[in-house]
Structure formats: C-alpha cells, structure tokens
C-alpha cells in the first residue's frame, strides 16, 4: 500500500480545480472561468486497493494587488513544502509567460519531484503539443510529462499509476470512503460563491466572500442562511438585482449543488452586506476562511 500528498500548483485559470475534481471523481473544488477562483487549499482524496492519493488544489499563484492575494500566494508555497510530489499544471494553449516562470521557480526550490501537466490539449493539435512540451523541457528536468485535458479527460489511469510510484509506502491517511476533508460549512459557502462567480461580471466576483450564518437539519431537509459580502454599496445593488432577480438566480443554482452535497432538500436564504475593503484586512480574510485560515465547521 502506498499513500501520500500531491500538490497541484500553477497560475490562475490553468485548470487545477477541474483536474482535481476529475481525479477524485467528485466535485470538491469550485470551478469558474474567472481567475483566482480558488482562495484556499482544497483537498480531494482518491482511494484504490493499493494506493491513497491526497490531492491538494492550491490558489493560483499571481502578482498580488490585495493582502488576500499575498496570503493566497504564501499558502500555495506552504502547501508545496508539505507534500511528496507536485503537479505543475499549465495551460498549454497559451504562450509561456513570466507568471509561469515565477511558479516554476517556486516549484524548483522545493527539491521535490515535479510532473508537468500540460493541460487544455483539446485546444491544440499534435505539433503544438510537442512544441510546448519541448519549451517546458528546456526550462526544467521534470520527473514526468503528461499532456491531457482536465475538462474532457476520463480515467487518467496512466497519471494515477505513475503517481503511485513516487509515493511512500504507508497506511490510509483518511477513511477509504472520504473524498474531501473540507469542513461542510466551508464547502457550502464555496458552492454559493461559485454561483456568484458564474452569474456576475467585472469587479463583483473578486470582491465577494460568503459565510454560512446558520444551518439546521430537520427530517429530510436542511435550512441554510448565508451571507454574501461585497466591498461597495454599488456592488450590493448589482448582487441583489432588480426586484431580487440576481440573488434569486444565484440561490436557485446553488440549491441544486447543495442538495447533491447534502443528499436532501435544501431551503436557502441569501443576504448581502457591504464590508469595506475586506480583501486588505487580515482579520476579515481569516474570518471568511481564505488565504490559509483555519476552516472550522
């Protein structure tokens, strides 16, 4: 039996969250087309007869503008120091940038084996894939190379079998049926935030945080009250929408995923509050569970 930890590192929008969801065969990380969707470490666990792999989805590494983003970068670096193996997930369909080089240098400094995951090859032809692999190969001696599509891939058996060889022998780190160690309230808040990301544009998605205010189970239903925080009064108006239309849309989409997560009917009430410049205030970042903060129930 082998068991160990694998960190997924990369720039925002490289496809790390989509990949981890498909690797563990269940949605444990929220996904959107907005950069910086992942704000905290998310663990997904895949258990087979002879191996348990704990995948860690880290925040996308980028040049920070706010205190929140600085803490996200630090958390990604801290996570990489406590694993057995790193997947450097890159978007193969776009040119290698200074941001990619920055992440690569972080990965190099760990001294750990690194797999290059060349993602989004569904947008590339074979010549482009070969050329991009050669460009990365010239920059670092990766332990393994895996061109794939996180979005359209299926079993990823080759990746799993190769990963197993790099992990130490050991017992199960989590019960075999566990697919995520994320606290339930945090996962609920993240599902709601995902729908905010999907439904809103411009500055709204990045200025938003979500907190679960209350959660009560009654017979075959769960009653949840959650608070959506924004930074400006104008953002609050957009979030609520005309006659509450935006908030209703977000709530309807969120309920569908929450019922899958909790396995029962969900009654969801959403509220919106303005919290000035919360992304620059450590106390608020920690309270909302982002950037390495402890996530309790």
What features would you describe in this structure?
- The protein is built from nine helices and nine strands.
- The chain is 35% helix and 23% strand.
- Strand 4, helix 3 and strand 5 form a beta-alpha-beta unit.
- The C terminus is likely disordered.
- It is of the alpha/beta class and 297 residues long.
- The strands form two sheets. It has a six-stranded mixed β-sheet with strand order 2-3-1-4-5-6, sandwiched between helices. Strands 7-8-9 form a three-stranded mixed β-sheet.
Short description:
This protein has 297 residues and is an alpha/beta fold. Helices cover 35% and strands 23% of the residues. A six-stranded mixed sheet has the order 2-3-1-4-5-6, with helices on both faces. Strands 7-8-9 form a three-stranded mixed sheet.
Index terms:
297 residues, alpha/beta, Rossmann fold, GMP Synthetase, Chain A, domain 3, 2 domains, 6-stranded mixed sheet, 3-stranded mixed sheet, 9 helices, 35% helix, globular, disordered C terminus
Q: What would CATH call the class of the largest domain?
A: Alpha Beta
Total individual domains: 2
Morphology: globular
The SSE order reads: EHEEHEHEHEHHEEHHEH
**Head-to-tail CA distance between termini:** 31 Å
Topology, number of strands: 9
Q: What is the CATH homology-level superfamily of the largest domain?
A: P-loop containing nucleotide triphosphate hydrolases
Write the layout of secondary structure elements.
Elements: E1 2-9, H1 16-24, E2 42-48, E3 51-57, H2 67-80, E4 85-91, H3 98-108, E5 114-119, H4 126-137, E6 144-147, H5 157-165, H6 184-199, E7 209-218, E8 221-230, H7 233-240, H8 245-262, E9 265-274, H9 282-287
Parallel strand pairs: 1-3, 1-4, 4-5, 5-6, 8-9
Antiparallel strand pairs: 2-3, 7-8
Helix pairs in contact: 6-8
């Amino acid at each position: 039996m082998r068991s160990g930890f694998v960190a997924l590192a990369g720039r925002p929008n490289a496809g790390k969250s989509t990949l981890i969801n498909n690797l563990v065969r269940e949605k444990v990380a929220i996904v959107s087309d907005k950069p910086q969707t992942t704000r905290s470490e998310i663990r997904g666990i895949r258990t087979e007869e002879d191996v348990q792999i704990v995948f860690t989805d880290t925040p996308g590494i980028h040049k920070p503008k706010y205190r929140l983003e600085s803490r996200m970068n630090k958390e990604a670096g801290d996570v990489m120091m406590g694993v057995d193996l790193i997947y450097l997930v890159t978007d193969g369909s776009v040119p290698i940038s200074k941001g990619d080089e920055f992440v690569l240098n972080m990965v190099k400094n760990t001294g750990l084996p690194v797999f290059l995951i060349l993602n989004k090859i569904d947008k590339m032809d074979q010549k482009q894939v070969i050329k991009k692999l050669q460009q990365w190969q010239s920059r670092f001696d990766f332990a393994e190379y895996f061109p794939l599509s996180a979005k359209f891939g299926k079993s990823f058996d080759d990746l799993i079998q190769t990963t197993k060889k790099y992990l130490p022998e050991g017992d199960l780190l989590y019960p075999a049926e566990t697919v995520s160690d994320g606290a339930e309230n945090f996962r609920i808040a993240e599902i709601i935030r995902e729908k905010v990301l999907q439904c809103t544009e411009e500055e709204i998605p990045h200025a938003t945080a979500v907190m679960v205010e209350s959660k009560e189970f009654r017979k075959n239903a769960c009653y949840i009250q959650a608070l959506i925080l924004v930074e400006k009064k104008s953002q609050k108006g957009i979030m609520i929408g005309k006659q509450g239309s935006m908030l209703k849309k977000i709530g309807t989409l969120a309920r569908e995923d929450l019922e899958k997560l909790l396995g029962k009917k969900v009654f969801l009430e959403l509220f919106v509050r303005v919290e000035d410049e919360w992304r620059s205030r450590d106390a608020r970042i920690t309270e909302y569970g982002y950037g390495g903060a402890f996530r309790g129930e």
